Amino acid sequence: MEKYIITLDEGTTSARSLVTNKKGDIIAVDQMEFTQHFPREGWVEHDAIEIWNTQRTTLIQVLNKSGISPSQIEGIGITNQRETVVVWNRESGLPIYNAIVWQDQRTADYCEKFGRKELDLIRDKTGLIINPYFSGTKVKWILDNVKGARELAKEGKLMFGTINTWLIYRLTGGKVFVTDHTNAQRTLFYNIHTNDWDDELLDLFNVPKNMLPEIKSCSEIYGETFKGLLSKNDETQFKICSSIGDQQSALFGQLCLNPGQTKITYGTGCFILMNTGENKIMSTHGLLTTIGVAIGDKITYALEGSVMVAGAAVQWLRDNLRIVYNAIETEWYAGQVNDDRRIYVVPSFTGLGSPYWDSYSRGAIFGLDRGTKREHIVRATLEAIAYQANDVISAMQKDIKRPLGEIKVDGGASNNKFMMQFQADISRSKVIKPINVETTAMGAAYLAGLAVGYWENIDDIKSNYKIDFELTSKISEEESKKLIKGWNSAVQRTFGWIKEIE
Fold first, then answer.
1. Which residues are documented as binding site for glycerol?
2. Which of 134, 193, 208, 466 is the most buried (most CB within 10 A)?
3. 36 vs 216: CA distance, rounded Å
């Protein structure tokens, strides 16, 4: 009887479950969107119970769709939106507040209050910067602003986790409270030199250690799902055997296993990671030092750049401006204009991420004239995603002091041939897209399979990687520099917008 791996891929706007076979083929997928809450400007929240119910539903649905017996599942892997914070009551198992999402900017003013000493301490210990993006300031906000939270924390009655921890807790019926190194490192509470929670950092944010989960590797058996997960009388229990942040999962799924190998994932945001092996490179150009993957006792590091708004900019065209009916149309519209108008869209709707880290920037469109049409704005929005990714690529090249020869791409927008060609044009690197762009899900699946011997080793996995297309630049270096100059000018004009108008 053939065996399979299930991946739970919990993203920013939807929860998905995927069934994978030994060849790396995806047999079945089920996906459900969940509600996005925007209670105030710059605030983004999710209902953690809704996330759990949505993810559980997709797990049941994907088994039903695939026609596979539960007994054929070797294990479950989990990959998740990072930095999103859930704080729940240890006794009831219920959240005390909505999950605060990684995009949320409510702690921007708090982050501004840190002095140079604290900023250096955080940078040196965590590899990160102080920014609302990361989990730590969100946890502090919940403790400071939810009635009774501080008292419950002092009594040891609260638990904090990123979404992976929350799902493992629920899947095991509250028996297992763990996280993995890739998610732990994004909290601002984790020391990348000791690879453990850091008391000095916890004191800095006034967060008690008793709220934090145990840190495990990304590939091991954490526990089993509770009986009755699939239906009331069903006794099936699945092993939960991988946990990894979505971007690190994509790095592993793209088989970027050697230092220097780089991937871009185009999702709600856009994330660029470069494997740096066992070497922790501390960026001097606005990038983050992060954990790439932890397998057994070995920890691999990476350089990362984070773009806050990528696919979300296309959703904005569709849902807010309503100038396209669906994302697929954007490629066609972009191809309808080829004149000398240089329109720039800067989609900094929730501030700018790497390498600028400006929480006060807001979105803008530059270069409009009487001849500007819908097609120009659609095209400029797609180009903006590539420009933002290129900003990070440029910073990486400065940090490692050499050009990037190739970049592996995945995520929904990697199917947009116009955008991928533009990425190759301005980045002057070969863009490689695999046939299976579900690399985030595949990373977690591979790690789960390795934990239970479904795949014997990494060499067993490499044959699953097949290329769809490779693109190289079709424009001159002079032309790409001219385009980038215009982009740089546009971005700079959005800096500090919120502060400027107050």
1. 82-83, 133, 246-247
2. 134
3. 30
